[in-house]
Amino acid sequence: MPLLSVSKEVAVGTAMLGVAFATGLLAGKRYPSLGFGTPKSSKTILGKSSPLWQYILDHSLREHPILKKLRLLTTDHPWSKMMVSCDQAQLMANLVKLIKAKKVIEIGVFTGYNTLNMALVLPDNGRVIACDINEEYAKIGKPLWKEAGVEHKIDLRIKPAIQTLDELLAGGEAETFDFAFIDADKENCNEYYEKCLRLIKKGGIIAIDNVLWGGKVLKPRKDDLATQSIHHLNEKLLRDARVSISMIPMGDGVTLAFKL
Ligand SMILES: C[S@@+](CC[C@H](N)C(=O)[O-])C[C@H]1O[C@@H](n2cnc3c(N)ncnc32)[C@H](O)[C@@H]1O
């Protein structure tokens, strides 16, 4: 018997499929148009209807009940495809636990699935600096952060993430963080990486999401700034002597950079 069965419907996987936060109009509400894709469509390496992916979830996912509740709640959201894949979130929680992280950064919170995921495994005095520009999304997850009893570990900062990272650096917090997850607008991914690298301690980890960008990195178009930006960072990381790396074909692709 699987530990947890995740229906194909809800096991949506990662997938921030776009980037350029031009604003779109949908059902009378304004949601970010992510550059490509439509609400509810999603991409994963194996495909959300892949029996193999379902097998992976059935045989590896150990999801906290409140985390599952937030995932199911987010599934109803028109932009549920932005939520990180649950298997990838579990990998990050395992890494956070393994390195005994106390201070972590999340760049791009959405409804807070991974924020909650990391807060659940941090010690009681641990902190997640959670960066987003959209408070409405986080409002969906906040009651569940509270229900899980980890609200006190989450410091939500609603402003452009670059500003939050600069404030942390200016506040003398360089080399004090253990883990960072970069999962926001792709045009800024290099800036996020460079600032996180300064904030992270040696031995710390930076996880960069969507590094395969639905396969677009294979042939980045000149006018597609998001794909260009991801591709340039991928090329730079390959030669970056400040880190060891692994690029993992999970979700929409995640690179783990281990600070040396
Ligand atoms: C892919 S979603 C994040 C998913 C989230 N990590 C999770 O666990 O489900 C990207 C988020 O980045 C946020 N975002 C976009 N541009 C941003 C910026 N400049 N600064 C901070 N957050 C930003 C969006 O509002 C959106 O909530």
TrEMBL record:
The keyword Transferase applies. InterPro entries: Cation-dep_OMT (IPR050362), SAM-dependent_MTases_sf (IPR029063), SAM_O-MeTrfase (IPR002935). Keywords: Methyltransferase, S-adenosyl-L-methionine, Transferase. It comes from the Eukaryota. Belongs to the class I-like SAM-binding methyltransferase superfamily. Cation-dependent O-methyltransferase family. This is Catechol O-methyltransferase domain-containing protein 1.
